[in-house]
Amino acid sequence: MSSLPTPQPVINQAQYGDFRLLILHLAPGALTTLVYLAFSPLAVRLHLPALSALLLAIIVALLPLEMGHLLLQGKRLNGRWSLEGVVLYQRDWRGWRYLVMAVGLGILSIAGFALSAPLDRFWQHAAFGWLSGWYVFSDVRQYAQFSRSVMIMVLSARLAVDGFLGPIVEELYFRGYLLPRMSRLGWAAPSLNCALFALYHFWQPFNLPTLFFVSLPIVFGVWKTKSVRVGIYTHVLLNAMGGILSLVAVLRH
Q1: Tens digits of per-residue pLDDT, 66-124?
Q2: Do residues 151 and 143 lie in contact, with contact meaning Cβ atoms separated by under 8 Å?
Q3: Total-model pTM
């Protein structure tokens, strides 16, 4: 992955129209979900959890789509494969400030998760109770049928893909690239960016309330600080922590 570019001014950054923003926010999630659904029968035949099909879809669809789009924009702008002038909000700080911000925003996100969990359960039951059990990969009861070695393999892959690679690319794409290009909306920009980011997770629509409230502190943190690194560190911290806890639970039981 290309290193992050030197901070660029964002005041005069060209703004994208509403339709373009909608497509750029939602299309990667829609295409990734289609790939996920296509891979799921194969996972069933191999007696693997559906989560393995989702991880494969992220690797072959989501990450190439988002990172590829960023690099293509850099190629058009700079004449070379680069993120310079594409990924913005590059204010640089001392390392300890990133740690403090990541921990603080992480605590707010965890609080958002705790407060939205009841709403999440209601939403899942009311709107998506018809979904097949395998599609709701957050339901840990389905994993009892798989061997310990299989679950260790799948959850280790999840830690690498969803704990590190995914958050880095998503923050570069959604907060470093798209958020500055909707700044004309003022304080509505981070709220809309957060809402579209939640909707983009078509592979887990049953978690829509939680996705919104967990992401909200991260988006506003980047918006306020004008530093995409704040979003990267916080997103990685949260996802890696969730991945480690899942792996530890399997190892213990």
Answers
A1: 999 999 999 999 999 999 999 999 888 777 888 899 999 999 999 999 999 999 989 98
A2: yes
A3: 0.91
The DSSP annotation for 53-71 comes to HHHHHIIIIIHHHHHHHHH
Distance CA 51, CA 250 (A): 15
Helix axes of 188-199 and 18-45: crossing angle, nearest 10 degrees = 30
Distance CA 138, CA 38 (A): 19
d(CA 75, CA 83): 8
Q: Which residue has the tokens 């497509």?
A: 23
* Alpha carbon distance 5, 196 (integer Å): 26
Average pLDDT over residues 18-26: 97
Could you give the residue ranges of the DSSP H alpha helices within the chain?
Answer: 18-45, 50-57, 63-78, 95-128, 148-160, 166-170, 188-199, 208-225, 228-252
Q: Which of 167, 137, 176 is nearest to 36 (CA)?
A: 137
**How far is the C-alpha of 192 from the C-alpha of 211, rounded, in Å?**
13
Question: Which among 94, 67, 93 is positioned nearest to 82, based on CA atoms?
Answer: 67
Cα angle at 28 between 126 and 65, to 5 degrees?
A: 155
> What distance in Å separates the CA atoms of residue 175 and residue 163, rounded to the nearest whole number?
17
Q: Running DSSP on this structure, what letter comes out for residue 174? A: I
Virtual torsion, Cα 144, 31, 78, 226, nearest 10 deg: -60
Query: CA-CA distance, 171 to 40, in Å (whole number)?
Result: 27
Average pLDDT over the chain reads: 90
What is the rounded average pLDDT of the residues 150-164?
Answer: 94
End-to-end CA distance of the chain: 37
